[in-house]
Write a structure and sequence with these properties.
This protein is mainly beta and 477 residues long. Among the domains are: 254 residues, Immunoglobulin-like (Sandwich), CATH 2.60.40.10; 37 residues, Laminin (Ribbon); 27 residues. The protein is elongated. It binds 2-acetamido-2-deoxy-beta-D-glucopyranose (12 copies). Pfam families: EGF, EGF_CA.
Amino acid sequence: MCMKYIFILISMSTTCFGSHFRGALLTWRPSEIPNKVEILYRISWARSSVGQFCNKTTISSGTVLSSGSLSCLKNCNGTIGVLNYLCTDFSETENWTTGRGSITYTFPSNHTYYEFGFTGGAWISLVKGGSNWELRVKANLAPRTDTGRVNTAPQVDISPIVRLIHGCHHTIWIPVTDPDGDDVRCRWANMTLNECAGICNASTGAVLNETTCTVTFDATGSKGYYALAIQVEDFTSGSTIPLSSVPIQFLVYVYNSTLGCNSVPEFLPPTRPNRDTVIVNPNGTFTDVIVARSRIPNTDIKEITTVSPSGFSKSILMPYPNLTGAWYIEVTWDLPLVFSVQTYVFCFSATDKSGLTSQQRCMFIVDKGDVNECESFPCENGGNCTDIIGSYECDCPTGFIGVNCTEDINECDLSPCGNNSKCINTYGSYLCECYIGWTGENCTYVRLELLLPLILLTPAILSLLICILLLKRKKRR
Ligand SMILES: *[C@@H]1O[C@H](CO)[C@@H](O)[C@H](O)[C@H]1NC(C)=O
Ligand SMILES: *[C@@H]1O[C@H](CO)[C@@H](O)[C@H](O)[C@H]1NC(C)=O
Ligand SMILES: *[C@@H]1O[C@H](CO)[C@@H](O)[C@H](O)[C@H]1NC(C)=O
Ligand SMILES: *[C@@H]1O[C@H](CO)[C@@H](O)[C@H](O)[C@H]1NC(C)=O
Ligand SMILES: *[C@@H]1O[C@H](CO)[C@@H](O)[C@H](O)[C@H]1NC(C)=O
Ligand SMILES: *[C@@H]1O[C@H](CO)[C@@H](O)[C@H](O)[C@H]1NC(C)=O
Ligand SMILES: *[C@@H]1O[C@H](CO)[C@@H](O)[C@H](O)[C@H]1NC(C)=O
Ligand SMILES: *[C@@H]1O[C@H](CO)[C@@H](O)[C@H](O)[C@H]1NC(C)=O
Ligand SMILES: *[C@@H]1O[C@H](CO)[C@@H](O)[C@H](O)[C@H]1NC(C)=O
Ligand SMILES: *[C@@H]1O[C@H](CO)[C@@H](O)[C@H](O)[C@H]1NC(C)=O
Ligand SMILES: *[C@@H]1O[C@H](CO)[C@@H](O)[C@H](O)[C@H]1NC(C)=O
Ligand SMILES: *[C@@H]1O[C@H](CO)[C@@H](O)[C@H](O)[C@H]1NC(C)=O
């Protein structure tokens, strides 16, 4: 059952390690170039497996780990690329490493529909099924009839292992989103469609709600690991034909506890609730605190495990100063600069020293991306627009002010009209109604033309007066 894997690894390692696989997810998004896509994946392995070791140093140093290859499964042949990854998270207690990577690939131009995936062996020992794995993506690269653009596949994420107490009824929410805003539904992977290899039909006790992507799990069967294989699909509203189909496969571990269903560790404020959505500024920083406490007296928290986007930085587990018995971690993340909406999933759970694990919580981190707001010409009245991250700035012409240069400045407030003249504010400017005898834009000039007749007539009037005087004198004589 390790044949395929040995073949893949032949150049890297000759070891075939059984029961090392801990699940994976695959998705993709198109580029501007036809048939060229970016394939995104997250893969989880036993942390103790050769080449899959991850700790804080591995994460911060950006050590590349490798894990087999991605194959074309329909309409093309052979290897698409090597599934190298950077580990993002690990669990010492649960013995797993998980990490992300991406492959940019151009499919041959003679088809617009492709299936590709990841196959190999072997899974961790399971209660039911096991050995080989197969994850299969269905990608339609033809432009959509409704938008005229190539579809982007839905996104999905969850912890590699969800731990559930035996004898209890559990609900597992699988966070899914779709960058195109399509309807997203989940379904079990199907053996006939070659979507699940050794773990088809292996999810005994699990019921999937296809519209909400939640699994209810009756943990009353055997204890141990169960593998869940789910296809996430996006649909245009009302349609039953998926635009694309992407796989997520993860583990549920059902464990023994005599302490009862409600004895698992609790999260305390300010820990965010399950299914929360946080909106971050483009090129911004996300910071958060996760606080957990055991419900068993005098028991400490042993580990807070996370599943995070690439680049997250997490503190070590620390005693929470504000509450006795509580422990916490801090996470910070400088988001990558993106130019369209990006949704990231962040999941976490806490395990105490008695081996009990809290309910998993997952949340969305939404980055609206930096859009060039100037493209919608927000600056009015001839203002010049400058795009800045997350916003824009308008350079307004004289007479206008405000975010969009729409506010008229009332110039009359500054009393620009001189010499007792009246100021009338207009849109973008002002007018001065000059007092008699004054002129100019601001009524600061004497109206010479009014005095002109007077000046011109002065010699005439003077001569007239002289004439009159002379005449009077003549009369007297
Ligand atoms: C981790 O898992 C591997 C594979 O299932 C197993 O061989 C190994 O013993 C485990 N290591 C620990 C420390 O649990
Ligand atoms: C991570 O593991 C390496 C190799 O075992 C070790 O040298 C390093 O100190 C570890 N880093 C941390 C932060 O534990
Ligand atoms: C892939 O290879 C098989 C066998 O080698 C061949 O029958 C098939 O036509 C090939 N398919 C494509 C799309 O090249
Ligand atoms: C598609 O194109 C590739 C090379 O671009 C070629 O090898 C393959 O045979 C073609 N397949 C079909 C079905 O035409
Ligand atoms: C699996 O797929 C086949 C082929 O499309 C279909 O006939 C069958 O009903 C599917 N099985 C399930 C359980 O949905
Ligand atoms: C799946 O499991 C059910 C019940 O366990 C069984 O009836 C069915 O035949 C199984 N299907 C396959 C394809 O193994
Ligand atoms: C799935 O969940 C929704 C919302 O809780 C509910 O309305 C619907 O009936 C559920 N579907 C099934 C098949 O249980
Ligand atoms: C499960 O619990 C029972 C009783 O509490 C105990 O006898 C048994 O050893 C436990 N099994 C495991 C695998 O821990
Ligand atoms: C994004 O933020 C980082 C750190 O805050 C900063 O150094 C960088 O210049 C910013 N990028 C842009 C394009 O503003
Ligand atoms: C403890 O509480 C204080 C006041 O409420 C708060 O400012 C501080 O951030 C808290 N410490 C941690 C580690 O959350
Ligand atoms: C500026 O214009 C933008 C886009 O046209 C609009 O959303 C915003 O509300 C305007 N702001 C003000 C203060 O008018
Ligand atoms: C806008 O930019 C043009 C060209 O740089 C310049 O001529 C004009 O004066 C600017 N307008 C304003 C209101 O700044």
